[in-house]
Amino acid sequence: MSETLPFIDAVPGAPLAARMRPRVLEEFVGQDHLIGPGRPLSRIAEQDQLHSMILWGPPGTGKTTLARLLAQHSSAQWISMSAVLAGVKDVRQAVADAQVALAQGQRTILFVDEVHRFNKAQQDAFLPHVEAGTVTLIGATTENPSFEVIGALLSRVRVYVLKRIEDEALGILIDRALADSERGLGNEGLTLADDARQLLIDIADGDARRALNLLEISAQLVDSSATITATTAAAAAGERQRRFDKGGDVFYDQISALHKAVRGSSPDAALYWLCRMLDGGCDPVYIARRVTRMASEDIGNADPRALQLALAAWDAYLRLGSPEGELAIAQVVSYLASVPKSNAVDQAYSRAMADVRASPSHEVPLRLRNAPTQLMKEFGHGKDYRYAHDEEGGYAAGERYFPDEMADAVYYEPLPRGFEQRIRERLERLRARDAEVSGESDT
Questions:
Q1: Chain centroid offset of residue 250 CA
Q2: Where residue 74 falls among pLDDT bands split at 50, 70, 90?
Q3: Residue 325 has what pLDDT?
C-alpha cells in the first residue's frame, strides 16, 4: 500500500492528463489562492509542516496532484487508498504500517481519495490515529465535507477549497501539453487553431483533466494537415455536458441560486439557473416541486395565483413530458420571479408552529367543538358559538378562537405588497372592531 517517491511520473501509455501531471509544485497551474508565493499550501510545503487536511473541489481541479506534490516536500512515507475500494481492514493496515514507520522515526501521509465515500465506521477507524498524529490525513472530495465527513474528524483537519480552473490556466495547460516533447504531444508536429483552443477551454468547463483528454482525442482525429480545428475539437467532445452532480453540491448550489433569483425578482437569472439544471440532467419534476414551494414561501398571498400556476405547470409537465413540458416550468419560474413577494405566510407558519411545540396540548373550547349528535350537544359542544355569517358584516367581532388557556397571538402580518395589501387593510379593520368590542366589554 505504501509508495516510494517519486510517484508523479505516469506509466508508459498512460493518458495525456496523467502524463502531464506536474512533477514539482512550481509546475502546478491554478488555485492561486492556495499555491504561490506566500500562499497557505506553499508555506506549508516550504516549511515541511504538513498537517491533516481535506482538499475539497470539483473534478479535475488538481486535488490528488496537489496532495502528492505537497508530500514530495515532506520526509514522510506515502500511503494511498481510494474510499471506493478500501474498507476498515485497509484503514487498519495503513495505520499499522504507519505505526511501524513512526517507531523508526518516520511520519506517514495517508491519502484518501473520495474520502466522502467512507461511512461513519470507516471514518471512526482512523479518527484516533489522526488525533494522535500517527498519520497525517489528506482527504480529497468533490462533496461538501460539512455533510459527508463526521464532525469529530472534521474538527481535526483543515479544509482547503479548490476552485474550478480558470480559462487562462486551462490555456496554459493545453499549450504546455502541445509543446512538451517528453510527456506531451510535442513530437507530433500538431498545430492548434485559435478557435479550437478556445472551444477546448469552453467545453472543459473548469476541468483540467477534461481539457487534456479532449486535446488528446482531438490529436488522434486530425487529418494530414496536422491541424486541430474547431470541427475536430467538436467531434472529439461529442455532446457537450455541463458540470452537474445530481444530489451533490453542484445540484444544491444551483437550486439555491434558482430559488434566490426568484426571491430576488430576477426572471432572467432564474431562467438561466433553470436551464443550467435542465441542461445538466436534473429531473424537471424535482424542479416543479421546488418551484411550488417557492410560490408559497416567497410569494404567498402577495399573489395567490402563484401557487395555482405552479401546480398547473407541474401538471402540464406530467401531461406533456420532455421536452415540451419544460416550457410550462419556465413560464411559472419567470412569473414567480416577476410578481410582488411576501414571506408573511412562511413567517406566520413558523411562529405558530414554534408556539404549538412550546405549549401544552390545550383543549378545544367547548363552543368551538363540533356537535353532530344530540349527546355531544348535551355535553355543551358548540354552545354559545357565534355563527359569523349571522353577524354584522359576516364577522363575529370580539369572538376568540384560540384555546381559553392561551392569550391571543398575531402570527400572520401581511406585507404592503400586491394583493396582500388588501388583506392587510381588511385584517386591520377587523382587529379594530375587536378592540372596540373589547373596550366596550371592559367598561
A1: 5
A2: confident
A3: 93
How far is Cα 74 from Cα 36, in angstroms, rounded to an integer?
18
- Enclosing H/E stretch for 78: strand 77-82
Residue 228 sits at φ, ψ, to 5 deg, of: -85, 110
pLDDT at 442 over 60: no
pLDDT at 2 over 60: no
**Predicted confidence (pLDDT) per residue in 141-196, tens digit:** 988 888 788 888 888 889 999 998 999 999 999 999 999 998 899 988 899 999 99
pLDDT digits (tens, 9 = 90+) for 275-317: 999 988 888 999 999 999 999 999 999 999 999 999 999 999 9
What's the confidence (pLDDT) of residue 317? 94
Distance between CA atoms of 35 and 246, rounded to whole angstroms?
30
Cell of 256: 439555491
The DSSP bridge pattern shows strands 108-113 and 2-3 to be unpaired
Task: Give the integer Cα–Cα distance in Å for 426 and 130.
Answer: 64
Q: Computed from CA positions of residues 421, 422, 425, 426, in that sequence, does the dihedral angle turn out positive or negative? A: negative
Question: How high is the pLDDT of residue 343?
Answer: 95
Looking up cell 417557492, which residue turns up? 294
Determine which helix (DSSP H) or strand (DSSP E) holds 94, and give its type and residue range. Answer: helix 88-103
Instruction: Name which of 147, 76, 75, 149 is nearest 112 in CA terms.
Output: 149
d(C-alpha 52, C-alpha 215), whole Å: 35
Q: 11 pLDDT band (50/70/90 cuts)?
A: low
Q: All 3 cell numbers of residue 296?
A: 408559497
CA distance 274 to 290: 11
Buried b (16+ CB within 10 A) or exposed e, 73-106: bbebbbbbbebeebeeebbeebbebbeebbeeee
The radius of gyration of the chain from alpha carbons, rounded to an integer in Å, stands at 32
Parallel, antiparallel or unpaired: strands 108-113 and 136-141 = parallel
Nearest to 111 by CA among 68, 143, 56: 68
Q: Which amino acid is at 326?
A: E
What is the separation of C-alpha 136 from the centre of its chain, rounded to a whole number of angstroms?
28
pLDDT tens sequence across 319-355: 998 889 999 999 999 999 999 999 999 999 999 999 9
- One-letter amino acid at 210 equals R
Please name the residues in contact with 155: beta carbons below 8 A apart, sequence gap of 6 or more: none
Residue 212 to residue 425: CA distance in whole angstroms: 64
User: Which domains are assigned to the chain?
Assistant: 2-161 (3.40.50.300), 167-237 (1.10.8.60), 249-338 (1.20.272.10), 363-442 (1.10.3710)
Residue 418 CA, chain-centre distance (Å), reads: 32
